[in-house]
Automatic annotation (TrEMBL):
Residues annotated as domain G-protein coupled receptors family 1 profile: 41-287
Keywords for the protein's UniProt record, in alphabetical order: Cell membrane, G-protein coupled receptor, Membrane, Olfaction, Receptor, Sensory transduction, Transducer, Transmembrane, Transmembrane helix
Major site of localization recorded for this protein: membrane
The protein's name: Olfactory receptor
Similarity remark: Belongs to the G-protein coupled receptor 1 family.
Organism classification: Eukaryota, Metazoa, Chordata, Craniata, Vertebrata
Residue spans crossing the bilayer: 25-47, 59-78, 98-120, 132-152, 205-225, 237-258, 270-289
Pfam families in the cross-refs: 7tm_4 (PF13853)
Localization of this protein: Cell membrane; Membrane
Record's bilayer topology term: Multi-pass membrane protein
InterPro entries the record matches: GPCR_Rhodpsn, GPCR_Rhodpsn_7TM, Olfact_rcpt, Olfactory_Receptors
Length: 312
């Protein structure tokens, strides 16, 4: 704790995405639109799943939770980034930076764990359909989601403690548009090699293990589908394709950032934008455009609103 007393930095300065003010205004409009789409698309899925009893199944229970995590994940970084586009000086307090780092890792880790559980859910549904309801009861699903948040919180606490126990007494410029562990560690006025190894191992191992578990589950699913009818294969592959698309979009950038930590900052910024903005926008699209049940439920929800408005 003595090292904490040597921390004299009270705020950090973001370099942001670009130094061109005209380009920043254009990016503000573009990313504001994306953020509104994230909120609208994911809220629509959450409301649809909550209101339609036919969607009260484990798969859609997890999908609703994924939409909630996507909203939280993007909201940790995007509003601050949008605000910074409007000002030449992009600052964040030391404690605000640590808070952003903490909640960023909670949401990112929760999403990785939840995507893994969703793959397990599909594995049980396709390979053991007769035992599905007993294996994936509401109680089990609730416990799994609770475990997701507990595991994510533990991971985030480890990352945050490793970062905050270092002294920060020199430079305070972060070459990014938000606070993440690795860019912040570069500003510590002490040797951070061992800490960086621990952090990269922690985050990289979680991403890699979950990704391999996902791949293994889908290999088993594909093998089991050979004995099914063409219609069963089509339905299963449609659901699995959407999930695999989302997994690749999210876990790919995470694996890149934490298995290649020495890449150029400009590349890291592009990758970071991808998993904080692009993936949460595409998740609702991936799960609704290819899912007839969700589209039918959205239509029913619209018709219900029309009926209510007519009565009024």
């Amino acid at each position: 704790m003595d090292e904490l007393n040597h921390t004299t930095v009270t705020y950090f300065i973001f370099l942001g995405l670009t130094g061109n003010q005209a380009l920043e205004l254009a990016l503000f409009v573009f990313f504001s639109t994306l953020y509104l789409l994230i909120l609208a698309g994911n809220l629509l899925i959450m409301v649809t799943v909550a209101c339609d009893r036919s969607l009260h199944t484990p798969m859609y229970f997890f999908l609703g939770n994924l939409s909630f995590i996507d909203i939280c994940h993007s909201s940790v970084t995007v509003p601050k980034m949008l605000l910074d586009f409007l000002f030449p000086q992009k600052t964040i307090s030391f404690h605000g930076c640590i808070a952003q780092l903490f909640f960023l890792h909670i949401c990112a880790c929760a999403e990785i764990f939840l995507l893994t559980i969703m793959a397990y859910d599909r594995y049980i549904a396709i390979c053991y359909p007769l035992h599905y309801l007993s294996f994936m009861s509401l109680k089990v699903c609730t416990w799994l989601v609770g475990a997701v948040w507990v595991g994510a919180t533990i991971h985030s606490l480890v990352q945050t403690v490793l970062a905050i126990q270092l002294p920060y007494c020199g430079p305070n410029v972060i070459d990014s548009f938000f606070c993440d562990v690795l860019p912040v560690l570069k500003l510590a006025c002490t040797d951070t090699y061992f800490t960086e190894v621990l952090i990269v191992s922690n985050s990289g191992m979680i991403s890699l293990v979950c990704f391999l578990a996902l791949l293994l589950s889908y290999v088993v699913i594909l093998v089991s589908l050979r004995r099914r009818t063409a219609e069963e294969r089509r339905k299963a592959l449609s659901t699995c394709a959407a999930h695999l698309f989302v997994v690749t979009l999210f876990l790919g950038p995470c694996l890149f950032l934490y298995t290649c930590p020495t890449t150029r900052s400009s590349t890291n910024k592009v990758v970071a934008i991808f998993y904080t903005l692009v993936t949460p926008v595409l998740n609702p699209v991936a799960y609704t455009l290819r899912n007839e049940e969700v589209k039918a439920s959205i239509k029913k929800l619209k018709n219900r609103k029309k009926v209510i408005s007519l009565w009024k």
